[in-house]
Structure prediction request, 455 residues.
Amino acid sequence: MIRFPDDFVFGSATSATQSEGSRNGISGETTWDYLFQSRPELFYNKLGPYKTSNFFNDYKKDLEFLDKTGQTAFRTSISWARLLPEGRGKVNKQAVDFYTDVFKRIKAKGIKLYINLFHFDMPMKFQEIGGWENREVVKAYVNYAKTCFEEFGEFVDIWFTFNEPVVHTECGYLKQFHYPMLVDSKKYVQVGYNTQLASSKAVEIFRKSKLKSKIGIILNLSLAYPRSCDELDLKASRIAQLFQNRSFLDPSIKGHFNQELVDLVRDNGMEPYYELDDLKIIEENTVDLLGVNYYQPMRVKKKEKDDIKIFRPEKYYDDYKKEGIRINPYRGWEIYPQGLYDIAMDIKNNYGNIDWLVTENGIGVENEEKFKANGMIEDDYRIDFFKEHLTYLHKAIEEGANCHGYMVWTFIDCWSWLNEYKNRYGLVELDLKTGEKKLKKSGYWFKKLAENKGF
Ligand code: BG6
Prediction:
């Protein structure tokens, strides 16, 4: 049997926009409401973020599934636009009451509560003035963070400043998957920089609050495996990792940006606007712990085509399709459980073995109803996926990795940005037509996993 330490937590993660429903209750608009109104054709089910899994109305019943799946920790986010419909200023009392009740109920179950402050959900009011491009928005975010610490500080065990900051930066400013759907290298760098600054400033204000909880950042880490040991393939892999991992890992944990990345940005004339005080703030406000989202590795080789003319990560490497790898056909992502072990070793060897936990790991499957037998989705593929990743995580812990938990994506099948409900990840099934929620086989399995601290 693979057994984890007694204080190891097992849980799941979701986010506000993906579960609550932006038109349930009072809320300001986010960029997702706006994008859906202007370009509905981009969204898989053409539903928008309006109802999602209806957690805002269903939460009392939904939270019962935390017990049914045996979770000892749960992660969600607060919606900035719900808490502060104008982005700043007047606090929405209805939002305070809602979150307070949700958080109280979770704590009453003896479940640890991890709250993230930003999960891709920029209030539209602020995107109109440039979103993360604008330091005014950084200021407003710090004020929002302070409001959250004051209103909900007593319930939260761990705060996270951001979920996957690489994603809103790249998807909004290079890849056109998130609003404002631009391709603009200069803004891409500025948004990345300002996001890090916002994170460090939230840590600073958190320290002043004297709360006893901890604060971290959630990063989607993927090691970049080189095609070969050829010097140029190795260089490609190192640079891919600078963009994907080191960009936020270094300032968040070490308190300064990675010098090789800084040089690369400067050599391309892409230095962001910054103020001297910023660097001191970043240096003095590192995180207590790290959340790691892991889905797939990167595989790269040296640049062979001169196809990228602007400054972006892919200017320095080509993706490499390795023969014989396993792919999740629905999402197109490689399945490589050993990647989690390798990340653990990178954190151990290069980031002072900081305290961390897996904050997302999971497999998205399309048309999951086809796996239904006797009314239950028999998602053995998901159980196998979890088992394989847990096996490598356990090996890493035995070798000294400082990992204290494993959270799957996701709790109840949720709305997922442009993909909406295409790929299902939940321990709990959501029937989109009836709104009914039901445990999947993996939900039952997860309860045993948590009870036995292993499998
Ligand atoms: C994670 C995000 O990276 O991927 C989640 O934090 C998202 O918000 C999840 O839902 C799955 O994404 P997708 O596109 O496969 O539905």
About this structure: The pocket of 6-O-phosphono-beta-D-glucopyranose is lined by residues 15, 18, 163-164, 220, 293, 331, 360, 364, 409, 416-417, 419, 423 (CB under 6 Å). Residues 185-209 form the longest helix (25 residues).
